[in-house]
Amino acid sequence: MMPAMTLVAGALAILVAAFFKGAVSFGFPLVATPLMALALDVKTAVAVSIIPNIAMDGVQLVRRGHAHDTVRRLFWLIVCSMLGMWLGTRLLAVMPGRIAMLVLGVFVLLFAAVNASGLTLTVPPAWERWLSPPVGLVAGVLGGLTNVPGTPMVLYFVALGLDKYEFVRAVAVTFIVVKVVQLGAVAWYGLLDLRLLAVSLGFTVVALGGFAVGLRLQDWLPARAFNRAVLAFLFAIGVWLVVRSL
Length: 246
Known about the structure:
By secondary structure, the protein is an all-alpha fold. The protein has eleven helices and no strands.
């Protein structure tokens, strides 16, 4: 059985990450995984955070609807991300936890650096058909290894110029699909047993509470100041993960 203090630390990490996701519509595993990795090993952190992520994205999808249009547009990105997710989870299963922690830390630092730089990418409409499959594959592999498939996808969706509601639908649809695949993969490779499944279901209840509060704050939250604080926080977490892995 997981120690009580570890459970509390994990639940607090889930709560903070779920609030962040409710406020900005994405970023749950990006925040939850490195936070939980401070108290748990990365493989366990990945395994117990999948079901809460699926539940929250399910809520987002129900709120926005019209999922079939998004699935039609992003079909090949979704298919390739499913394949990449399975491959990435296989890497996670065989790779030493220290290496996975290092990859996660470096990835978090790169994400914070790209966002802090203000770099804006734009994908011409004619390129979408050809870029979607490799973006999906890369996002899936990174997602399986680090539990963070959303960052490449989010950057890609922004580059496509999706409006607010299209963006939220794209995030919800793609995340649900890849996370369901990831759930099957972690179970297949022995990373999620019945004990951790029970922990994950308990964390789901916590996550939905934090997510609900985040949704209420979404409309009036001062996004610029909030994003700066989040980036600084993620930078500190990334540095700590890299140092810890070394």
